[in-house]
Amino acid sequence: MRHTRGMTLLELMTAVAVVAVLITLAVAGMQGRINGQREGTATRELWSSALRARQLAISTNQPVRFVVENNVPQPDGRSYTVARWERLKCGDNLSAPDVWTLDACPSATCLNTSCRTNPECCSETGTDVVIPSTMNATSMHALCFLPGSGRPVFNRMDCLRGSLGTPAAIAAAAPTDSSIQFKFTSNRVKSVLMVEPLTGLSSVMDCDSLAATSSNVTYKDVRLTAACAAP
């Protein structure tokens, strides 16, 4: 009679170890793809939000400001870093926001606080854009589109209150091509949100794109290349 040989303990442990390694590699690869999808979605939503914010600043004649906040609870019960636009009220009396002057827009009460802290400061707010843990979008904080013109100013929570009628001040506060960068701790190369200083129109560009990396002058975007090279 032929006897069937079973697996030894060492062989069984080796087989389990191999399976565990394969599972770990598969999970890591899947997680990387999921992170990439989340980063891409957040980047596109931030760009879309910037276009919407500019449109509202022009149509409503109110400043529209971006705020990036940490640890904001979301419907899934967890807290995330999020970004959203805020359409700010003008006039120093928030109960009568239609009082609009160059020196009182936005309201003084709302210069250094978000509308999440003081909802009375806003006529309207955008949808929260969840920023993945592998992504940094803090440079978008305090980007503001000015009332009526939609021109952008950078790093100004006050939306240039008191200087809205001063072209030199508006030009000096405009973002540069490299001002707003989206950085990633994953393998994804950073992206930049390039906001035109005169029109406020924006475009999001990837720093590993052909326009940023090509040595061929036909395809190369000099402005994008310089923006991607900035720290």
From TrEMBL:
Give the superkingdom in one word.
Bacteria
Task: Show the Gene3D superfamilies listed in the entry.
Answer: Glycoprotein, Type 4 Pilin (3.30.700.10)
Q: Which Pfam families match?
A: N_methyl
Q: InterPro entries, alphabetically?
A: N_methyl_site (IPR012902), Pilin-like (IPR045584)
Q: Which NCBIfam families match?
A: IV_pilin_GFxxxE
Designated name of the protein: Prepilin-type N-terminal cleavage/methylation domain-containing protein
